[in-house]
From TrEMBL:
InterPro entries: LD-transpeptidase (IPR050979), LD_TPept_cat_dom (IPR005490), Transpep_catalytic_dom (IPR038063)
Residues forming the catalytic site: 229, 245
Segment forming the signal sequence: none
Pfam families listed in its UniProt record: YkuD
Protein name as it appears in the record: L,D-transpeptidase
Keyword Glycoprotein: no
One example of a Gene Ontology biological process annotation: cell wall organization
Bilayer-spanning residue ranges: none
Top-rank taxon, per record: Bacteria
Gene3D superfamilies associated with the record: L,D-transpeptidase catalytic domain-like (2.40.440.10)
Record bears the keyword Flavoprotein: no
UniProtKB keywords: Cell shape, Cell wall biogenesis/degradation, Peptidoglycan synthesis, Transferase
């Protein structure tokens, strides 16, 4: 992932001892809750930089209120993604005091986030926390830099997903998107993790992204994280019936699984 060519990196799977498969299965259910359960009433953990103590982590479980929103949610990204080799401080602007920390790993894999702006010594990245589209500045030092050639586009109105690789269309599929009361959130996000449950119930693979339901604070015991995943019945495709996740056909899921972590995702209305 280093050098002038800046090759495409591959997603990191679960790490650790043999119990990792069970951990992944539980993580997949608790993070997304896409396959069943009922919406929860609780709030995701809110955090701000105003108090003392340890800084909050920028993960799918937290809400970061002291960081700027994405100012160009419909703009294309160039595919540059970064991985902090150790916990990185996150600031609201270059040189400002840190108000959060971006961990080197989360959801049992390495943290890769897309770059949306660069200044000398700093990178502005999309973060996986609430509110959707939250961004932060991290120092350029201590980062692995790579480039994803993939882009995932979801058109909510047409209920279509298109996967591009180096600008070439790999495929377009009819998918299921959020229902009117639980819509799939629009804007720029990214592939956050790749989870393979040991005993799949509705999908052999779940791909959480760095976005959350705008109408559900929690779902199925998790923080309402949106994800790409499969579904047992093809009858759902082309319909707006989910709690915010995007259900995709088997071929689409297989191809999406090849997109590296941090790959840009653009969801349009």
């Amino acid at each position: 992932m280093r050098g002038a060519a800046r090759p495409v990196h591959r997603p990191r799977r679960a790490r650790g001892p043999a119990t990792g498969a069970a951990v992944l299965a539980a993580t997949a259910v608790l993070v997304t809750g896409c396959g069943g359960g009922e919406p929860g009433a609780g709030k995701a953990a809110a955090a701000d930089g105003g108090g003392g103590g340890k800084l909050p982590e920028a993960t799918t479980y937290t809400t970061l209120n002291d960081l700027p929103a994405d100012t160009a949610p419909a703009a294309a990204m160039d595919g540059t993604v970064v991985h902090p080799t150790e916990t990185a401080p996150v600031s609201s602007q270059p040189g400002a005091p840190a108000v959060a920390e971006l961990p080197a790993s989360q959801l049992k894999g390495d943290t890769w986030v897309p770059v949306v702006e660069t200044r000398p010594g700093w990178r502005r990245v999309l973060l996986p926390s609430r509110p959707n589209g939250v961004t932060g500045w991290i120092p350029d030092s201590g980062l692995k830099v790579a480039r994803s050639s993939h882009v995932i586009k979801v058109d909510v109105s047409d209920r279509k997903l298109t996967l591009l690789n180096s600008g070439r269309k790999e495929g377009t599929w009819s998918v299921a998107v959020g229902a009117p009361k639980t819509p799939t959130p629009t804007g720029r996000t990214f592939v956050l993790a790749s989870l393979a449950p040991s005993k799949p119930t509705y999908s052999p693979l779940i791909l959480p992204v760095g976005a959350h339901s705008e109408t559900l604070d929690t779902f199925g015991g998790g923080p309402g994280t949106v994800a790409f995943h499969g579904w047992p019945s093809a009858s759902v495709f082309g319909k707006a019936i989910t709690h915010g996740c995007v259900r995709v056909p088997p071929d689409a899921l297989k191809r999406l699984a090849k997109a590296p972590l941090g790959t840009p995702v653009l969801v349009t209305a």
